């Protein structure tokens, strides 16, 4: 089949997120100007540059009374955020933080997530996360569509859980990263293989 997005797909559910998959999940923690911690998962997330390390995620707001979600509001107010990498064992806690809640709700407490304080920014992170990326905001770009924004940040601090570093390599099979597919589907990665580039030395 072929369809133009403006004309609709005619299927029970939008296939676009299923086509562009699997996608890493950016479990973004922020702190509001009022000091309340927030954490929410974003499946339109990725690394975008190597040196200096930079990441991005997109926020598609759903609240009529503000321009974007709580995460975006907090980042605008404070200029920082933290990316928590989601492991398979954290899938239920991550999913719990995807619920729409008031700005005054502390999602860490709501989901029973143990937190710790970041080193380079004023923000909490998931204490048991396999890896975290502390970030300072570099830019927010308004995207096409209502309340859709791309948020870019430079990584100012990287934390790796000790058990995930094996022989000097960050081993994803030690924690099985969770990936977002389409619809309500997810996948976990427990098998990896290597391909050597033809021009590698």
TrEMBL record:
<dbReference type="Pfam" id="PF01613">
    <property type="entry name" value="Flavin_Reduct"/>
</dbReference>
<dbReference type="GO" id="GO:0010181">
    <property type="term" value="F:FMN binding"/>
</dbReference>
<dbReference type="InterPro" id="IPR002563">
    <property type="entry name" value="Flavin_Rdtase-like_dom"/>
</dbReference>
<protein>
    <submittedName>
        <fullName>Flavin reductase</fullName>
    </submittedName>
</protein>
<dbReference type="GO" id="GO:0016646">
    <property type="term" value="F:oxidoreductase activity, acting on the CH-NH group of donors, NAD or NADP as acceptor"/>
</dbReference>
<feature type="domain" description="Flavin reductase like">
    <location>
        <begin position="20"/>
        <end position="172"/>
    </location>
</feature>
<dbReference type="InterPro" id="IPR012349">
    <property type="entry name" value="Split_barrel_FMN-bd"/>
</dbReference>
């Amino acid at each position: 089949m072929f369809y133009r997005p403006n004309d609709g797909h005619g299927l029970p559910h939008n296939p676009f997120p299923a086509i562009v998959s699997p996608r890493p999940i950016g479990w973004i923690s922020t702190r509001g100007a009022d000091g309340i911690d927030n954490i929410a998962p974003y499946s339109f997330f990725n690394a975008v540059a190597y040196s200096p390390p930079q990441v991005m995620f997109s926020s598609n707001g759903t609240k009529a009374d503000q321009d974007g979600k709580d995460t975006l509001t907090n980042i605008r107010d404070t200029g920082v955020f933290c990316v928590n990498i989601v492991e398979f064992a954290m899938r239920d806690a991550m999913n719990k933080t995807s619920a729409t809640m008031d700005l005054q709700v502390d999602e860490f407490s709501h989901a029973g997530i143990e937190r710790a304080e970041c080193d380079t920014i004023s923000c909490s992170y998931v204490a048991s996360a396999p890896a975290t990326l502390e970030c300072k905001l570099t830019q927010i770009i308004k995207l096409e569509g209502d309340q859709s924004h791309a948020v870019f940040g430079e990584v100012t601090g990287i934390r790796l859980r000790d058990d995930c570093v094996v022989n000097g390599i960050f081993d994803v099979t030690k924690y099985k990263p969770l990936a977002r597919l389409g619809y309500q589907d997810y996948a976990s990665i427990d098998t990896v293989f290597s391909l050597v580039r033809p021009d590698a030395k």
